[in-house]
Every structure is written in C-alpha cells, then in structure tokens.
Design goal:
Layout (H helix, E strand, L loop, with lengths): L5 H13 L14 H12 L10 E6 L2 H19 L4 H9 L10 E8 L16 H19 L2 E5 L5 H7 L6 E11 L8 H4 L24
The structure holds flavin mononucleotide.
C-alpha cells in the first residue's frame, strides 16, 4: 500500500476546506478542454451503488441556453422568495444565488434511475442510492474544480421540468445538479451565506453521537 505523503494529504484537505459554492467573481476565461476532461473524469470516479454509474453530464456553453436557464432561475427565485417576510425577505433578496450567465461553463449532472448497469445491487433496500451516487460524483467534481482553481456553484432554485425541456432531457432522466463553472478572481474564506449573515456553520460536536442517538460522550 502506498501512503499519501504529507504534502498530498495537505492538498486533499486544502481542496476540502477551500472549496466554495461560487456565484460571483467569475472571470470570462474559457475552461480549457483538458481541464474540463479532468474534472469530469474525477466525477466519473465517484463511488456508485452496485457500480451503477447512473450519471450523465451535459456540458453547456451555448449563451442562449444559459440565458433560458437564467430566466428559469429568476422565475423560480421569485417564487422561493415568497416564504420570507420583513427583514429576512430583504436579506434573501440581497443574496446572489446563481451565476448562470456570468460563468462561461454550465454543467447539468443527471441520474438515469433505470440504468441497468450494476444489476440493481444495493438498491433493493434503498432505491435512492442512485441519486446519492450522483451527488458523490458532483462532490468529486466540485473538489477537483477547486484544485484546478475553478469555481463551481450549485443552482437548485430551478423549475426542473422547464430545465428538462430546455436541455431536451428525456422524461425518465432526473436532473440532480445544475452547476455554474469558471475561473474566479477569488474564493471566499467562508461560505457566502455565512458572510452575509444568513447562516453559520454548526458546531461539529453538536452533530456527533456515539453508539446511540444523543449519546454525546465518546470516551
Ligand atoms: C444540493 C445543493 C443545492 C444548492 N443550491 C444552491 C442554490 O440554488 N443557490 C446557491 O446560491 N447555493 C446553493 N448551494 C450552495 C450552498 O448554499 C452552499 O454549499 C452552502 O452555503 C455552504 O457554502 P460552501 O459550499 O461555500 O461551503 C447548494 C448546495 C447544495 C449542496
């Protein structure tokens, strides 16, 4: 077994801690083909239930398509804003929650829930594991993007049926993630939502249980 060197370990943890959800500070520079190929291949090496590999990747550069998705986002975001009132609503409206047309590259990661690969291994007890596998692919890509100095932002505030129409995604394929990707002028030191006072990172000790729910003493 070949261990990671101290430097390699540090690189992995750096990617984890310095990954950000990026919606602003995108630069217009195109993402080179070899870099795109590397981050897609990182995604494709994610774990998947039964080795199902249920994902597909739609690489979107077309400005007209990105504009259609931006309009979709604007409509969905107006609807989403309605649940907030007063000061919370003002704070919500001030958030920038997508960089669809600012980023030179968008990527839709989908899940084919009928894919035969893997023979259904591992999915009988929990059929959602194909979706979880697809999210693992997204996270691999997100971390690889950070290592490549590419920002990536996940946009979930979308009408998924309209998105499927725009991208001509077949009815039995599920869009899991819509990502805005590009080089950035900076990566924030903290999550954007934390910086803007929307939410803070929970203390890890509040979330760790030992042996049974709510048993906090691990010693
Ligand atoms: C499933 C998922 C959906 C998300 N959807 C959005 C979104 O629609 N708009 C947005 O601005 N951020 C979105 N985010 C990013 C989160 O807001 C972000 O991950 C969180 O605030 C922590 O910040 P960080 O990723 O920079 O650590 C999403 C993240 C995940 C995992």
């Amino acid at each position: 077994m070949k261990h990671f060197s101290a430097e390699e370990k540090a690189g992995l943890y750096r990617a984890i801690y310095e990954r950000r959800d990026v919606r602003s500070h995108f630069l217009p520079d195109p993402v080179p083909e070899d870099v795109l190929a590397r981050i897609l291949d990182a995604a494709h090496h994610a774990p998947s239930v039964g080795f199902m590999q249920p994902w597909d990747f739609i690489v979107i550069r077309d400005a007209a398509i990105r504009e259609a998705v931006r309009e979709n986002f604007e409509r969905a975001n107006q609807r989403a804003a309605l649940i907030y009132e007063g000061e919370k609503r003002e704070r919500y409206d001030a958030l920038k929650l997508a960089g669809i047309t600012d980023a030179p590259l968008n990527l839709c990661v989908t899940c084919d829930r009928q894919r035969a690969r893997g023979g259904g291994l591992g999915r009988q007890s929990d059929p959602s594991t194909d979706l979880y596998s697809t999210v693992c692919a997204v996270q691999n890509l997100w971390l690889a993007a950070r290592a490549e100095s590419l920002g990536a932002g996940w946009v979930s505030i979308l009408d998924m049926d309209a998105l499927k129409q725009t991208l001509e995604i077949p009815s039995d394929i599920t869009p899991v993630a819509y990502l805005c990707i590009g080089y950035v002028s900076e990566f924030g030191a903290q999550p954007d939502l934390e910086k803007r006072g929307w939410e803070q990172r929970e203390s890890l000790t509040n979330l760790v249980h030992f042996d049974r729910w709510n048993r906090r003493d691990g010693r």
